[in-house]
Amino acid sequence: MTSGIDLPLEVAVLLCGVFAIAGAWVGHRRTSRRLDQRRNPLNDMLKAENLGPAIDLALHRNARRHTSHAVLQGRIDQFADSREGWSADTHNQVREHIAAVMRVGLRRDDRITMGAGQVQGDGFTIFIPGADERAAVHIADRLRRKLAGLHLPQFGDEVRLTASFGVAAGRFGKDRDGLGRRARRALDVAMATGMDHVVPAGEIEEILLLPAPTPSAGSAAA
Length: 222
Hints:
This protein is of the alpha+beta class. The chain is built from 8 helices and 5 strands.
């Protein structure tokens, strides 16, 4: 008794050859599709005619970025309630410690001054060259996160430090004092909103420039 299908030797050899040729063809097609440059999404981007304009655009944006600077006006939210009873030395030590922590979160050319500029006393001013308003807001948020992890015994073990920031940006050559005043107004809004807020001057200025709402028909008739 036999099982399976009996095929002549010549037919079996022919079928093996056909299957081998078909497998080789399928493998070749897959390799060709994998290496097809037209399927590479970066292919067009890396072409000489497209790469040049892309580089020019990046350089242009970088140049525009470096023609602006930003000012951050800030204040530690817990200072007003905690500094009573401190000696002058303790007050200065705490301020310098906080300033040192914030300097770690700044870039090499950024400058921070405690108790100077538009925010006197417990406030601080940070000058950030080469930053627009959006970049300065990101820096302020980074400083807030660093301060949140700082625990000083002078404030109590359970106190988490928070800070409020007002941010303004403009081009080099513009009035820096005017930029500081814009940042101070934004800080006032941040402090009025509550603790631990960052307010860009551009946002509140856009609101002020909005047209007055049109009176309704009912109010006009009255």
